[in-house]
Amino acid sequence: MSGFSIRNPERRIESNPFDVDAWNLLLREHQSRPIDQEREFYESLVTQFPNSGRYWRAYIEHELRSKNFVEVEALFQRCLANVLNIDLWKCYIVYVSETKGTIEKYRETMAKTFDFALEKIGMDVLAFSIYQDYIAFLKKVPAIGQYAENQRITAVRRVYQKALATPMHNLDTIWADYCAFEKNINMTLAEKLIAERGKDYQNSRRVEKDLQAMTRGLNRQAVSVPPKGTASESKQVELWKKYIAWEKTNPLGTEEYGQLARRVVYTYEQALLSLGYYPDIWYEAAMFLQEASQTLDEKGDVKLAQALKVECIGLYERAITGLMKESKLLYFAYADFQEEQKKFDAVKEIYNRLLTIEQINPTLTYVQLMRFIRRTEGPNNARLVFKRAREDKRTGYQVFVAAAHMEYNCMKDADVAIRVFKLGLKKYENEPEFGLAYADFLSNMNEDNNTRVVFERILTSSKLPADKQIRIWDRFLDFESCVGDLASILKVEKRRKIAYEEAQKDLGMNHSMLVIDRYKFMDLMPCSGDQLRLIGYDALKGNDTPSTSTSSNPKPVPTRGPQAASAIMGGAGGHADVARYGFPRPDISQMIPFKPRVNCTASFHPVPGGVYPPPPAAAHLMSLLPPPTCFIGPFVNVEALCSVLSQTQLPSLQYDKSENGMIGPMNEADVKKDLYQLLATTSDPSAVVRSSALADLKRKRGDSDEEDEYSHLQSSTIGSIGSRDAYKRRMNKKNE
């Protein structure tokens, strides 16, 4: 098993395409091979994880080692704008600086590269090196003449000021460099500029400390994989949402809303690098872009508002063409956004793109498209969508229900709606949900006779299995209880009883539970909750009276004695286990976990053949350790090792006390000091008793040299641990 998990990453990927560890193992193997042989692997890697900056960077660096600059630039065009990974962007800057040095406009190209990078990822908390490299590059640019020198100083000062207004690591270094830069130019002007920028620096420094506390525990290097619902994944989602909410509170206190919106959007982008399979994160990011665009439009910043709208469209396109290509939620939200912009042709294209995906049920898409066409083009064109939906074999019965309600509510034509239901009943006669929807529609129109006809037609149909007729019979009885007389109610109840017996032949049917549906109304039941559970009625929706469910001080439940028995039979109170589970349960709090064991002795476990589970601390440690499948050797023969250790003879060393107070290589005073410290900190009672006996012996012999120095250690030890024995305590006092 261990060999399969370690040596066969290809087979692991076949069983789980999102096995990140297996992909990393393959990546290490393929990085040492020529790139011409490995492009197919890298393409499959970035296709599986399209928003992972780490994998894109590995692909690009492998191409760079072979000096394939054309392929490198093509890869940068594919990933750079959408994957805002700080390491990937640093790789891009290094590539431009190392490969564009021979072109004529190298300095202009590098300046544009740095400006482009700062525009995209300049707000990152790890952007210190980019600012530092940009400043160093600008300082090295030659300036001929006073005008050129002033232009260079202005450019350097602009980058410094932008960096000081950004919360990021190593901000103190940039501040110190900026102060030195201004002082080297003009000491008089430096004091004023430093004082002005000092406020931004202090504010950014404060926010950076709060940012560190807010992002503690975030795994920014995690690769987007479909969620499994683990505790670690839930924790990461919680931390990211907490971080996004914190950014929305405007911790920098900026008065420019556009800057605030940019920081929040960048935070969403960073979250999507790790949470790309969470549609709610995509939706919340798009909603924030829409709200920010509207806010900026109201404030008069039309240019930035339009830019955010374009960015919102790009976000939706990235979602539905990438990781969320099968998320109907994002398709519908994208369509609503385009409809709000009056781009109706784009909305139709979005719905058509969703309908072309074969593995997705198109019923809901047809329903939403029919509603959109009804809003924009009228009900007549919406009927064409309904016709198209009927021709699609993948469509469910829900589209007939939606079309019928549209005809009745929008066109005010009940006859057409009924004809739509009849048409659907021919096709979906075996669907109880469609029959219930048809019956409810007729009941709401007060068509009592037609409603009975529909019920009879559905229940007498041979296409509907007996087990699916149960809900229809329940709804039929509820309908007759509302509008029928007692004779019709009893007649339906009798037929319903026969249907239940046929559907549940293998189960013991309690006929008392069937009569409950005749008298119940909404969540009001004719019996108490305990009685319903004992009868076997599993459709309990509430308590028998509203006061019992809203009581803030419920009455204690008796668990033994005659009151408990009367509670089960309908009296006050009730047994805790019966009230919770519906039947008595044994007390399992004292049960011992059983774990089977091969060749087990009777001393391991009270039950032969088992062992005790590890203690909680050991179990927690075992959960943190790698699984046994990760270990492939070397394996140790434990019995042989124990045999060797038991036969090993340890050398016995004896040292005599010398005249200068040395015991072998050790000083006698150091030995005593270490011994007393050991006795003072030990919790072994036998050691404390021995130390007391040793102290008594030394008093009788009169050997008190260097003992006073450690007497407080002895007294504290004996007083705290050895004083448990009253006789020894009295004897110690007499000796003193």
Structural class: mainly alpha
> In order across it, which strands form the biggest sheet?
1-2
Number of helices: 37
Helix share bin: 55-70%
The tally of strands reads 4
User: Which value, in Å, is the CA radius of gyration?
Assistant: 40 Å
Reconstruct the topology from this structure.
Blueprint: H1 2-7, H2 9-15, H3 20-30, H4 35-48, H5 53-65, H6 69-79, H7 86-99, H8 106-121, H9 128-140, H10 146-164, H11 171-185, H12 187-214, H13 231-248, H14 257-274, H15 279-299, H16 302-321, H17 328-340, H18 344-355, H19 363-377, H20 379-391, H21 398-409, H22 414-427, H23 432-444, H24 448-459, H25 469-483, H26 486-503, H27 516-519, H28 529-535, H29 546-550, H30 562-568, H31 576-581, E1 595-596, E2 610-611, H32 616-624, H33 638-647, E3 662-663, E4 666-667, H34 668-681, H35 685-701, H36 711-720, H37 726-735
Antiparallel strand pairs: 1-2, 3-4
Subcellular location: Nucleus
Protein name: Suppressor of forked domain-containing protein
Biased composition (Basic and acidic residues): 725-736
Description:
Residues 545-554 have a biased composition (Low complexity). One of its GO terms (cellular component) is nucleus. InterPro entries: HAT, Rna14-like, Suf, TPR-like_helical_dom_sf. Residues 543-565, 696-736 are annotated as: Disordered. Residues 7-531 form the Suppressor of forked domain. With 736 residues, the chain is mainly α. The strands form 2 sheets. A two-stranded antiparallel ribbon has the order 1-2. β3 (662-663) and β4 form a beta hairpin. The longest helix is centred in the N-terminal third of the chain and has 28 residues, at 187-214. It is extended, with a radius of gyration of 40 Å.
